[in-house]
Design goal:
Blueprint (H helix, E strand, L loop, with lengths): L1 H12 L10 H12 L7 H8 L3 H15 L11 H11 L1 H18 L4 H20 L4 H20 L3 H10 L1 H9 L1 H13 L9 H9 L14
GO molecular function: lipid binding
Protein name: Fatty-acid and retinol-binding protein 1
Subcellular location: Secreted
């Protein structure tokens, strides 16, 4: 269920101040946090993280900072495959790892039920559409992604038993993360539904509750400040 990880990462990224700049030191700290939760990270992803070289880290940091500054044309990035191709072009050392992860994810996605495939494809499209539409406006992007969370959760709750089984077989780590944090997700879901839409991006409580889902364990605290 990479759609969950992607959505979470982008919502968090939207909170970074415009002057934010990623460093290798910050990346190393984030990696150490991620390594503390191996049950939630697919082995094919963790392997690429564990074997990251100094060159790959430097390329990744440079790529992220350029992406944050708007140096890449996001209107040409319509899906994860397009993003991987961009990484392969701009950060070739990292691109090799991104390709391994993308190909494995695609192979696994083909093994889940049609309901799951439709859901994953829909949310990937939604994710990239919002990246294109709100590129350069992090506040608007954060608000839009927050507003989509209730819809995402309602669709997940509508999964058939067969769909859940297929997801657990192909994406065991992501489904474990979802189920282990289901109560917190439900609380956040109810909180978001109770907020007037115009207050979503301004209310500091929204971000505090989002951080309480466990993100503060994975990211430096400066990454979670609105």
């Amino acid at each position: 269920m990479n759609f969950v990880l992607l959505s979470v990462c982008l919502v968090v990224a939207s909170a970074f101040p415009h002057e934010f700049k990623l460093t290798v030191d910050m990346l190393d700290k984030a990696i150490e946090r991620v390594k503390k939760f191996p049950k939630y990270i697919p082995s094919y992803v963790m392997e690429q993280i564990d074997t990251a070289t100094d060159e790959e880290k430097e390329q990744f940091v440079n790529f992220v900072n350029k992406l944050d500054k708007g140096e890449y044309k996001m209107d040409e990035i319509n899906n994860s495959e397009d993003l991987v191709k961009l990484v392969e072009k701009e950060a070739p050392a990292v691109g090799k790892k991104a390709r391994i992860i993308q190909d494995e994810y695609t192979k696994r996605m083909q093994q889940v039920t049609p309901q799951a495939q439709e859901f994953l494809a829909k949310w990937e499209k939604t994710w990239f559409t919002n990246v294109q539409q709100y590129s350069g406006d992090k506040k608007a992007f954060f608000k839009q992604m927050i507003e989509l969370i209730p819809q995402l959760m309602e669709e997940v709750h509508g999964f058939s038993e067969e769909t859940w089984k297929s997801l657990e077989e192909q994406f065991p780590e992501q489904t474990a993360a979802w189920k282990d944090n289901e109560d917190r997700l439900k609380q956040f879901y109810e909180f978001i539904k109770s907020l007037p839409k115009q207050d979503l991006a301004e209310d500091p409580e929204a971000f505090r509750k989002f951080a309480h889902l466990g993100l503060q364990k994975l990211l430096p605290i400066e990454a979670l400040r609105a």
